[in-house]
Amino acid sequence: MRINKFLAEQGIASRRGADEIVAEGRVLLNGKVANAGDDVGPNDTVELDGKILSHKVKYEYYLLNKPKGCVCTVNDRKEDKERPRKTVMDFLPAGAGRVYPVGRLDYDTEGLLILTNDGDLAYRLTAPQSEIPKTYLVRIEGSVTPVQLNRLRAGVEIEKGVVTKKCKINVVETDKNYTKLHVVLTEGKNREVRKMFEVIGKEVTFLKRIRIGELTLSGLDRGQVRRLTQEEVFYLKNL
């Protein structure tokens, strides 16, 4: 297998992150600095930062109800190292293996997050061509018109040359001061939901991912985590 896939299965990073680690010269393959296109066989020796990595991998899968106020990263790279922010890794149970978050929810966004060391599953869930539906509960200030909703459903330009795919949006609750909606996306652009509503002049005051496919947060309070069942893992792998 390619070296980036090998590192992903070790729970080191996503395949893209593994490519960056290899490019930094931190990985040795049979004693020589590895290249991005190298293949790893069962008899090869792979070292990361001087530590030999095992070929035996035990996959772990967790579901976290991420609270806002923490970052989706293994280590907080914020410049102020004296006051590091809490990361999603802080919510894992004692004894959890080396896993990493699948995709990202920004600092102020909460909800459903999967963490695993299964690189193939992580790739399947995040690859744009997979078009895995992800449902968000969104609250905005004020009201929204049918014309505005249809504009968002059809796709809008959130940055120069960056247009969102068609999506599903339904109003679930409305009041004179706010509107709550369900937004279903099949892609994962950076801060996509917030930027979409900015296009129509609306500020998102609350954002929570509540579903990936048919997988939900049922029974999990904010900050709680549990292992995925075998049935749930099988479901995600066959989405």
The number of helical elements comes to 6
Head-to-tail CA distance between termini:
23 Å
Averaged pLDDT: 91
Rg? 20 Å
Reported for the largest beta sheet, the result is: 9 strands, mixed
Q: Which CATH architecture of the largest domain is right?
A: 2-Layer Sandwich
CATH topology of the largest domain: Alpha-Beta Plaits
- Please name the fourth-level CATH homologous superfamily of the largest domain: Pseudouridine synthase I, catalytic domain, N-terminal subdomain
Estimate the global geometry from the Cα principal axes.
Answer: elongated
Number of E strands: 15
Secondary-structure element order, N to C? HHEEEEEEEHEHEEEEHEEEH
Helix content: 10-25%
Name the poorly predicted regions. Answer: none
Compute the number of structural domains: 3
Give the structural class. alpha+beta
Walk me through this protein's architecture.
- The chain is of the alpha+beta class and 239 residues long.
- It folds into three domains: 3-52, Roll (Structural Genomics Hypothetical 15.5 Kd Protein In mrcA-pckA Intergenic Region, Chain A), CATH 3.10.290; 61-129 and 215-237, Pseudouridine synthase I, catalytic domain, N-terminal subdomain (Alpha-Beta Plaits); 133-212, Alpha-L RNA-binding motif (Alpha-Beta Plaits).
- The protein is built from six helices and 15 strands.
- The protein has helices at 3-9, 15-23, 119-126, 146-154, 192-199, 230-237; strands spanning 27-29, 32-33, 46-48, 51-52, 61-66, 100-101, 110-116, 134-141, 157-159, 162-163, 168-174, 178-185, 204-212, 215-216, 225-227.
- Helix 1 packs across helix 2.
- The chain is elongated.
